Amino acid sequence: MTTATVTDPAAPRGARPWRAVLRTEARLFGREPAGIFWILGFPTLLLVVLGCIPSFRDPDPGLGGIRLVDAYVPVSVLLSMIVSGLQSMPPVVTGYRERGILRRMSTTPVRPGALLGTQMGLHGAAAVVSTCLSLAVGRLAFDVALPRQAFGYALALLLAVLAALALGALVSALSRTSKIAGAIGSVVFFPMMFCAGVWLPVRAMPGTLARVVELTPFGAAAQALDQAASGDWPSWAHLGVLAVWAVVLSTAAARWFRWE
């Protein structure tokens, strides 16, 4: 979604390099309205559209008596992470590599790792802001209860963000150009949307399919967030799946990532 832009590799004197990178990248990130919309606006807009469907506001026996709009709040939360990790961040990072910006940065006090960390931090923060927006809109517009197990919800959210960004870092590592990154991201995007429950909430999936989906990062995240929202502590099995995915994907991204 976000197009790669050129960052000035020279850090201002008197400022720590990572602070200079953060200021520059945050400014450039704010100049990408399309990327901001897809991360912050689209998930909430989808929630609003679905919530305006009368049948989505009626209790559903197949979902344990909750409404479909209640089940789609965690889906909109996960959708922002998927967009951040797969559609927004990889084209930016690979674009910097493709244009030789990372190579030029290696000759300055600003290390390429600062750029990658800043990108992950910015996209992770955007996903968290989108989460807060979805929760607020769900509560104010459709009377969706806020998460009853706040600490469990925050932990599941943190692990889900880490897994999503690690997946984005892996796509960036495997892609030589921004076009390839966009293509890989699009291929992975739709299966991850399915696993997050965009077309069918995970709790409504048949038993075998649900068990398979729960082994994916976003399927496990959907179940963990749903459990925390209902007031229960998220299953340690789901949290463990998220943690394993975050570690495995991060390790693979670090192993195959190239600055040039």
TrEMBL record:
Residues 34-260 form the ABC transmembrane type-2 domain. PROSITE patterns: ABC_TM2. The keyword Nucleotide-binding does not apply. It comes from the Bacteria. The keyword Mitochondrion does not apply. InterPro entries: ABC-2_transporter, ABC2_TM, ABC2_TM_bact-type, ABC_2_transport. Its main location: membrane. Belongs to the ABC-2 integral membrane protein family. This is Transport permease protein. It comes from Streptomyces sulfonofaciens.
